[in-house]
Amino acid sequence: MPVQFILGTDPNNKRNFLIDEMHEQLKKDPKAQMLYLVPDNVKYEAETMILKQFKDKNENAKYSGMIRLQVFSFSRLAWYLLQNKEIYQKPQLTDSGLGMLVKRILQQEEENLTIFRGASQQTGFVERLVSLFSELRNGKIDPIDLFELKDTAEQKDKEKNNDFARKMDDLSLLYSKYDEALKGKYVEREDLFQELIKYFEANRQRFKHTTVIIDHYEHFSAQEQELVLTLCKHTQNVQICLTLDRKALTTANDLNNMFYRPAKTYQQLVHELGANQIPVKEDLILPSYNQVRSKEITELTDYWMESTGPMTQADVEKYKDQTYENIELWAAEDTATEVSHIATKIKELVATGEYRYNDFQIMTRDLESCALNVEKAFVENELPFFIDQANTMSHHPILEFINSLFLLKKNHYRLDDVFRFLRTELFIPDYDGQDTSKEAYQKQINEWRQKIDIAENVALAYGYHGNDWIKNEEWIYMDRALDEESPLNDHDQKIQDTANSVRQAVKDYIVPFTDQLEKGQTNREIAGRLYHFMQRIGVIEQLQLWQDQLIQQGELEEAREHEQAWNTFILLLDEFVEVLGDEEWDIDLFLSIIETGFEEATFGMVPPTIDQVLVTNFDLPKIQPKKVVFLIGLTDTQLPQVQGNRSLLTDEDREVVENSLSSEKYLAVSEIESMANEPFSFYLAMLQAKEKIIFTYPISNNDNGENRISPYLTRLKNALSLNLQFKQSTTINDGLTRPEDYLAFIGSKMHTYGHMLISLREAIDRQKTPETFWLGLFKKLYHPENSRQRRLINSLSHKNIPKPLPEDLAEELYGKELYLSVSQLETFYADPYSHFLIYGLRLKERQIQELTPIESGIFYHDALDLISRQIVSLDRDLVSISKEELHHVTQDIFELLLESNKYRLAQSSHRMNFIFNQLSKTVENMVWSMIHQAKRTKYRVNKTELVFGQLGQEKGITGLSLPLNNNRKLHLRGKVDRIDTFQEGNQLYAGIVDYKSSDTTFNYQSIYYGLMLQMITYLDTVITFSEDIFDQKAKGIGAFYSTIKNHYVDLKKIGNKNLEEELLKNYKLDGLIIDQREVLQAADTLLEPKESSPIFNLYLNKDDQYTGKKILTEEEFELLKKFNRDKIIEAGNSILTGKNNLYPFDQKEIRVHTPSITGPYRAISQFDALLPENNYKDVIKMDKDEFFDYLRKLYSNKELDD
């Protein structure tokens, strides 16, 4: 019955006193029973600590146990005493279940609400309302209290728009409905407390010899306080321990009092004990001195305690005169650097032999983000560690399985959803579970993963999605470029069959389930179908298999996670059915509930039992202090930490509510009180250290901003004259002057190697001698026989320069005889390394069915080829084709093309259909331009898509074969888009036209650098083999680019000019034309003196002479042809000698597609112009005169040399 407060400023002193007292009392009184009540987070530690100290007191005992002394938290005590009672048979809803309940109430009472009408749709509102209701129940505040508050507010302010009254009106209505929904049907924590109170009242005799000790609580909710008072009434005696300075009770209501929270708790309890006529013994005040804690740590905590009140100048000076070697203050570059230096410091201290790993504790307020850095740094430094934070279930495959499964229905089998679902590996069709060995499982899972990868590649390449997964239609796959045709080979057939097997599995197992997810059904019906579906496809068996395999591997903790995750899912499903089962099926609500439930659920933790560094939450200090404590991340936003009020009650609302309640009812701690408690939280954290404490903070944050040091640290720094040590990420800066500075970078061998290599590399790059410290360490650590070390050291001399291929390897890659396309040669000249990646290693990006410029260009080529052939087959001249006939011809061709599998992309969506229609119009306009050009020129289309050499499966006319070194040859292949010809007497003239889907202009600079070999090569081929093509020898016309695009004319600017002629200018052919009178005259028969041709780059002057920079004399054409062949031979010889240097053009100088720097292979080349070894080619500007002067000089010198 009597109650005694045990007060002291050091929790460790209280614990030692209590354990001694408990041991003595149990020893003296054989009837004595004891309950030691502590918060959940320290219950396990309290048990092990008491067991250990009891064993130490019984030196002769081999084992130690507790029968009459039991350690509980309030909730665990309720379970222990009530587990077999009726109340524990009722379901207890999780936060997710309570959220469902509140959401249903909101929907039902929507029309009766004012302030909160429609609020249920706001993100986070339901969770905040659940939190408020929980706070009210914990505070013993019932719906009637809120009704009375509403009535009082209305009477005080009848005429004004009283938002508080309306809020109370809404809350009282919702809270009463919430209370009604829970009552008698569900049991929550508050109900258990009330039942526990009744249990003690009904079983007084059982506890008449029981002493209750309550420790490690600084604050009690109203529910907990009532339970404490009940224990005081019905047990032998109660001891309540508070970390509190007796002098602080005189200013208990002062928010500046460091002990404000425990002092307020003390006063509240004393008041309620008096009101309940419970006798209170005289307080037991324990001394503050602790022999376990060092003098420096004691002075640190003493100063902090004293500094919260008035201090004399003498008090201040006594701390400044001291030297504190075991109190350090660090400022690190960033969080990663902060944790890295902590790791090396621990390594250093353990190496002295005076510390074990479990002598260290790291405390932070941001445990989640800190955990990532701790894991990285500690694994790298080979340090054992335990992070005291339960892992969330949000990443378990079950959640991904459920999310992706229902999104299949919602998004109609979108590719991302399908493959997210398949990659959960909870669905494996045709899985053979007979052999459960790890090897057999791994073999099957690897096969399934490969099937999924293949199916994804096929689906992406051909755009299979949506209905393609549902309908009875086989997928088609051919691994080929769009413009090549070949029969389906064995390899392609295997890929196609594999992809179809995955498609069929989805159709057979998944589609029947998603087809059942129709509106109009209840949540109960869908939940039942989901459970049976998961049973049918083997989800439970798969989870069991994973668990069994982990058990076999000794991973017991991880093995339990699968069982826990499944139980969580079943619990959420049960709650969903229980609360919302009869509501109409809502897929979004269901997914939200499951996702929130898994995010809030955590896996059970196994407490640390081996020698490990402990990483804990700053606000949940442990019972046992450690020799060395690191308090980290102490910026001005973390200490003091502003919690922020997320409650639906504002600070003003809370004040009104608190003032209207009786003393035994109250809300949770307010934001202002939380702020007032910050110095006390910091004090408790510092008390965790016994010998050494290190405060740290990161200077920069993740948002590239700068953090400020906590004002608490500034206070300590100034008061104790502490030096702020700067911790940098590497040793390459100039801030290290002492040898001991370098020791901060010494950790595990690999960690140390990393910092050593960074420093050595920096010295090499700066061309200076490395620091003596690192040179000495290098001599000590480096063992050349160690291959890993050798590779690391070799990295110091690494330069981003590709090694040339040995000639035998080049021959193996490219062949003894080269068979090349001209575009391949142009790629080589653009950048030899890009050529090596594409044509040597044959690297390809994963094919995705999308409309790229290449696919657009292929469509243009195919369409123009077929249209030209169709017109030729009609035996009609282009000029005679009317607009209507052109439209009919083009439409027939387009329909033919778009129905083919080659262009199935056009039918994949309305958007793609529209785009292809636009492409078709572009082609039609292009043919229109050809018709109108034909009206001015004698040139006529003779051949289209002429193949020379061997191109894929197609063999064309003979192509050029040029001699290379060592009696080798280079055989050219390609496809000429169009050949135009005209006949003058007995002489045939031929020229080539190359279609481009973007503006391309002929220039001599590109020819000089080998970037425009195609035009000249094609014209050279056509002239050289003209007898094979035309059955007669032909002379050259020229070579031209024709841009396929829609052109527009601004009608406001053309004035009186001819619209058709102005539009035709936009389709002008750009290229080279050979200076032959008959060729020039035939080019544009309507050209008048002093006019420019609208179809060629020609100008006819007043003297009837043709002029233009792109008109070549026959001598210039021969020089150009010779130079072009020499460039091809030069490239061929370079390829076979293994040349693959990374030497691209600067895109600002010459725009040329270079995959290794602007395309998909940059990640491989890692070209960086800032590196001294990575340079762009120097580019010479060159016009026509300069170019041909160069050629004449080049070949005259060669002739002299010969």
From TrEMBL:
Domain PD-(D/E)XK endonuclease-like: 820-1060
InterPro entries xrefs: ADDB_N (IPR049035), P-loop_NTPase (IPR027417), PDDEXK_AddAB-type (IPR038726)
GO molecular function terms listed in the Swiss-Prot or TrEMBL record: ATP binding; DNA binding; exonuclease activity; helicase activity
Domain ATP-dependent helicase/deoxyribonuclease subunit B N-terminal, residue spans: 5-300
Keywords: ATP-binding, DNA damage, DNA repair, DNA-binding, Exonuclease, Helicase, Hydrolase, Nuclease, Nucleotide-binding
GO biological process: DNA recombination; DNA repair
Name used for this protein in its record: PD-(D/E)XK nuclease family protein
Organism: Candidatus Atopostipes pullistercoris
Phylogenetic lineage: Bacteria, Bacillati, Bacillota, Bacilli, Lactobacillales
